[in-house]
Amino acid sequence: MIVASNNNQSGNGNGNGYGYGYQRCVCRSNDQLSLISAYPDVAQCCSIGGPKMTFVRMLILMPLLLSLLANCGPLALPPPPPPPPPTPSARSAQSLAILRARDQCFRSERISPNQRLALDRQQYSNVPYVHRYVYCFWTRLQLWHDGTGFDPMRIVESFGGPRRLNLEQTVPAINGCNAHARRSARTALDWCYGAFVCVLRTAVGDWYRHHMQDVINGNA
Fold first, then answer.
1. What InterPro entries does the record point to (predicted)?
2. How big is the chain by its Cα radius of gyration, in Å?
3. Best exposed site among 36, 39, 46, 131 by fewest CB in 10 Å?
4. CA 155/CA 7 separation, integer angstroms
């Protein structure tokens, strides 16, 4: 049996108040007083839907929920996107070798900034530092040998092959300049420089100047 009475006072002199807007609920079973509590609504008094029973239900349902989650397993995630392909270098290996040889010779031959600028502008004056640089540059590229001079076939292969350099023009021009410069050279440096400036006066030399400018400017 449920007995409910309104109690809108915050309390009485005997300390039996339950606060404003609450009702006093008395539950009796077999005419025995079983529970006295304060509820905002009489319908909640001694019902199985009260806070105590709700907590009990949660304890009962928790193992079931955990079991369902375990059976479902982890959520399937989409596979990560493949990594982007590596970007190929815009510079060819031959161009990088040319720049590396140039920079190494600038340092080893102690070429000043003004002298470097002149060499990058393809100005090959007949002065000692130019002789040293030209010899250093072609020796580092392994395209010059003190015993035989410039190697025309290796030069063709190193600068793109026959598709870029005409063999019928390149090989005779280089061999002819090797022979011509050797007759008047006193040292290997003089011979290398003389053969080089000789080639620059040919069609092969014109192609070389344009190609070197493209390499220096990052266009090849």
1. PBP/GOBP, PBP_GOBP_sf
2. 48
3. 36
4. 109
Dihedrals φ, ψ of 145, to 5°? -130, 135
Write out pLDDT tens, residues 165-213: 889 999 999 999 999 999 999 999 999 999 999 999 999 999 999 999 9
The CB-side HSE value for 129 (13 A sphere, CA atoms) comes to: 15
Structure tokens at 101: 């040889």
Q: Which of 100, 99, 105, 182 is nearest to 146 (CA)?
A: 182
Q: Give the integer Cα–Cα distance in Å for 196 and 11.
A: 114
Same-domain pairing of 189 and 124: yes
- Looking at the DSSP assignment, which residues form a beta bridge with residue 150? 144
Tens-place pLDDT, residues 1-50:
444 444 444 444 444 444 444 444 444 444 444 444 444 444 444 444 55
Q: Same domain for 165 and 115? A: yes
**Distance of alpha carbon 156 from alpha carbon 162, whole angstroms:** 7
Indicate which CATH number applies to the domain containing 100.
1.10.238.20
Q: What DSSP line would sit under the chain, residue for residue?
A: -EEEEEE-SS--TTS----TTEEEEEEEETTEEEEEEEESSGGGTT-TTSHHHHHHHHHHHHHHHHHHHHHH-SPPPPPPPPPPPPPPPSS-HHHHHHHHHHHHHHHHTT--HHHHHHHHTT---SSHHHHHHHHHHHHHTT-EETTTEE-HHHHHHHTT-TTTS-HHHHHHHHHHHHHHHHTT-SSHHHHHHHHHHHHHTSHHHHHHHHHHHHHHTT--
